[in-house]
Amino acid sequence: MTEPSAPTRFAPATDPDRLRYDLRAWLAANTPADWHEELRTATKERFRAFNIDQARKLRAAGLLATHWPAEHGGGGFSFREQLLIQEELVRADFPQPRLLEISLAHIAATLIAHGTEEQRAHLAAILDGEIWCQGFSEPDAGSDLASLRTRAERRGDVYLVNGQKVWSSYADQASWCLLLARTDPAAPKHRGLSLFMLELDSPGVELRPIRQATGTEEFCELFLTGVEIPVAHRLGEENTGWRMAQTTLAAERVFNTLELQARLAVAAEEIAAQARATPLGGGRTAADDTSFRQDLAARVAEIEVLGLLGQHLARGVERTGEVGVEGSLVKLLYSETLQKLTGLALRMRGMPALVDQRREFATSWTSGHWMIDHLKSWNWTIAAGSNEIQRTLIGERVLGLPREPQ
Amino acid sequence: MTTLTQIEPAQDDIREEFRASVRGVLRDTAPVHGPRAVWSAESVDADAFRQAADLGWLGLLVTERWGGAGAGMQEVVVVAEELGAHLAVVPFLSSAVLTCTALAIGGDAAMGARWLPGLASGQLRGAVALTGPAGRTDPELLDVRAREEGGQTVLDGKAGFVLDGADADLVLVAARRTGRPGADLYAVPRGTPGVEAAPQLCVDRTRRLCTLVLNDVRLDASARLPYTSEAWPVLADRAAVALAADAVGAARRALDMAVEYAKQREQFGRPIGSFQAIKHKLADMYLLVRGASLAVEAAAAALDEGRGARRLVSLAGAYAGDAAAKVTGDAIQVHGGIGYTWEHDCHRLFKRATFDEVYLGDPSAHRERVAGLLLDGQGPSTVFHQ
Ligand SMILES: Cc1cc2nc3c(=O)[nH]c(=O)nc-3n(C[C@H](O)[C@H](O)[C@H](O)COP(=O)(O)OP(=O)(O)OC[C@H]3O[C@@H](n4cnc5c(N)ncnc54)[C@H](O)[C@@H]3O)c2cc1C
């Protein structure tokens, strides 16, 4: 058989077997070698350039933004095709442009659903590598996000913004920020918030990176002092920010899960391979250890269920545009499976997993540095609505239980 | 302040006084709050180490004959728990527990006379190299080999994850001899030609690990500890209990911090500790810390009194390892975003507890031993499987 020649651009409506076959050829030719090692010691600038480079490659092949409608420059692929593409990218260990995650998912969805014609111009910029961050949380407004205090006061054609944001991931790499701020302090707390597009090099924006438990600087504090945001950069109507933030973002999360699930599945295979190569003495390997086998099998079942749940919910989103309250299930299951799986991997490997590889950057949550991956899983159990909050939501909104005292 | 010579075993109030004095010392000398190095291991808390030496903690397991306190594991776990709680960087486990035990039980009088007084007083520091590149203690996974040549012993190979080994005055290296089961320990003094140490940066920065590469290292025939086989089970059990105690200390501190935070931090207009999700989590954490602490004390007492220790040691190892992992992880969760920052001690406690759990064996090995005792009427005699 001759080597297949990779197509240069993928399009929907190809036969799935053909699509898979072509993708594999493209990935074999386009996945950079040694990128793990390169990113390990990369500077922030280099990491950023690498991300943009990867995004360009995907874009040229029609593989960036596979779930956006074609009219906005997306792939327009069917749901099944998107799944297939994600799976192949993950299996080939193709480094995805993580810095563009928020741009491609959350920002794009918000712009497509609520943006003006002018605002949607950012969609094209995002395809060209425009990086966005999310400025929601504040020091005193985490779980109780709706109590946030950053003020945006209307002054003619601009809003004057003052306040402080925190934990904004990769804000120091971004040029734009999706900002949630209070426009009506007199209204009930959920009804006085608006969403803005904040250009980060505006005067009055100050940024301070914060070092994470992993040793690397990934999130930032954002100080906003007399920052002017043009009224044209407000998304949707004034004081409707909360609802937009809840619906659009929750729906997006479901699509993210599809990639994350594929990665977990691949990680479980990687852990199995490592177990076979981890000697226990007596001619046995970790793969012979009954308790490890049982644990790994339980995790694999969770990963499968997560896939089924994610697909089920994503189909619902395609039909109705909303994920509904069951989105909390996906978040709980993903984060806790990730936490248990990485903990299992680190204990199976033992001391070698505790040697710090001093990685400045990784592009996935299952990088194979299991101790750091394990620690990072707390990012998932804390952020985007902590798991405690998700459980309360499931109890109250799915099961109809009486509400907690507020 | 209570000094060790005043300690009489099995006197609870005296031990509590001892604990208070250990705590007091570490509170003043160990906490290295402030900017800490990101990509290097923390250096030894020199003041804490000096105090530990002056107060006799380093000689707890050494008999009075060699200048030690002649105390036991019940005192060791008091110190270990406080070291864990204070995230102290003091070569206690490596030198005072493992090296002193190995020499006291596996060595002979000449070795004792040569090393134990210095180790007990803190003038010398010892380390043990019990694992190879796989980081496990099974003899067949060791890489270092010993052979006899012209009346000398020659060591070759690589030891991994040697705690405090880079600047130790003495490293006891486990090596296999061709054609013999098990492994022996060899005394390798600092400066021996052919020994090279390379640091291994541990995710837990409070642990200073290294690999030791031994290349044609020639030692006197007397370098082999003559009673190594007697030392193995004692070494294994003491290591397990001391590590479990350190983990309990880290867990206790994480719990204290989480409780404090839950009382102060407000969301939705109320302290987060008023939410049942948090309150119940903290109650569970408390149960785990109390239980683990009692299990460790019981195991230490059994080791000191020489009764039923195998079972209690493994129960403590299994329970405390799991408990500390759960408690230190939950403490991060209770703290939310702030608990995920480098400045905060949450991650240090979590990493320290993880190290304690994984080093020289893990809870699954302990559970296996308990299951063996329960189901088969007997189990492997030590968790080291030596
Ligand atoms: C790695 C990381 C990245 C992040 N990235 C971003 C980002 O890019 N942009 C952004 O805006 N934010 C980001 N965040 C912030 C994140 O969304 C918040 O940390 C999260 O909402 C929790 O808020 P908090 O940290 O203030 O914790 P708190 O709200 O103070 O919570 C502390 C603890 O109390 C519990 N709790 C609080 N209220 C209740 C309740 N009613 N019932 C039961 N339990 C409760 C929580 O579950 C948690 O365990 C990030 C966080 C992390 C850790």
List the helices and strands and how they pair.
The complex is a heterodimer of chains A (406) and B (386).
Chain A: H1 16-30, H2 35-40, H3 44-60, H4 79-91, H5 101-114, H6 121-127, E1 132-135, E2 151-155, E3 158-169, E4 176-182, E5 193-199, E6 205-211, E7 217-230, E8 234-235, H7 241-276, E9 279-281, E10 284-285, H8 290-320, H9 327-349, H10 370-382, H11 387-398
Parallel strand pairs in A: 1-4
Antiparallel strand pairs in A: 2-3, 3-7, 4-5, 5-8, 6-7, 9-10
Helix pairs in contact in A: 1-4, 4-7, 5-6, 5-7, 7-8, 7-9, 8-9, 9-10, 9-11
Chain B: H1 12-29, H2 46-54, H3 73-85, H4 92-106, H5 109-121, E1 126-129, E2 145-149, E3 152-163, E4 170-177, E5 184-189, E6 195-201, E7 208-220, H6 228-264, E8 266-267, E9 270-271, H7 276-305, H8 309-335, H9 346-358, H10 363-375
Parallel strand pairs in B: 1-4, 2-4
Antiparallel strand pairs in B: 2-3, 3-7, 4-5, 6-7, 8-9
Bound molecules: flavin-adenine dinucleotide.
Flavin-adenine dinucleotide (FAD) sits between chains A (133-137, 142-143, 167-169, 219, 379, 382-384, 386, 388-389, 392) and B (265, 267-268, 272, 275, 277-278, 333-334, 336-337, 340).
Question: Can you tell me about this structure?
Answer:
Chain A: InterPro entries: Acyl-CoA_Oxase/DH_mid-dom, Acyl-CoA_Oxase/DH_mid-dom_sf, AcylCo_DH-like_C, AcylCo_DH/oxidase_C, AcylCoA_DH/ox_N, AcylCoA_DH/ox_N_sf, AcylCoA_DH/oxidase_NM_dom_sf, Mycobact_Acyl-CoA_DH. Chain A: GO terms for molecular function: flavin adenine dinucleotide binding; oxidoreductase activity, acting on the CH-CH group of donors. Chain A is α+β, with helices and mostly antiparallel strands and 406 residues long. Chain A has three domains: 16-114, Butyryl-Coa Dehydrogenase, subunit A, domain 1 (Orthogonal Bundle); 131-238, Butyryl-CoA Dehydrogenase, subunit A, domain 2; 243-397, Butyryl-CoA Dehydrogenase, subunit A, domain 3, CATH 1.20.140. Helices cover 46% and strands 16% of the residues of chain A. Chain A has helices spanning 16-30, 35-40, 44-60, 79-91, 101-114, 121-127, 241-276, 290-320, 327-349, 370-382, 387-398; strands at residues 132-135, 151-155, 158-169, 176-182, 193-199, 205-211, 217-230, 234-235, 279-281, 284-285. A four-stranded mixed sheet of chain A has the order 1-4-5-8. In chain A, strand 2 and strand 3 form a beta hairpin. The mean pLDDT of chain A is 92. Chain B folds into three domains: 4-124, Orthogonal Bundle (Butyryl-Coa Dehydrogenase, subunit A, domain 1), CATH 1.10.540.10; 128-226, Butyryl-CoA Dehydrogenase, subunit A, domain 2 (Beta Barrel), CATH 2.40.110; 229-385, Butyryl-CoA Dehydrogenase, subunit A, domain 3, CATH 1.20.140. Chain B is built from ten helices and nine strands. In chain B, the strands form two sheets. In chain B, strands 1, 2, 3, 4, 5, 6 and 7 form a seven-stranded mixed sheet that branches. In chain B, helix 4 (92-106) runs antiparallel to helix 5 (109-121) and helix 8 (309-335) packs antiparallel against helix 10 (363-375). Chains A and B meet through strand 9, helix 9, helix 10 and helix 11 of A and strand 8, helix 8 and helix 9 of B. The complex binds flavin-adenine dinucleotide. Flavin-adenine dinucleotide sits between chains A (133-137, 142-143, 167-169, 219, 379, 382-384, 386, 388-389, 392) and B (265, 267-268, 272, 275, 277-278, 333-334, 336-337, 340).
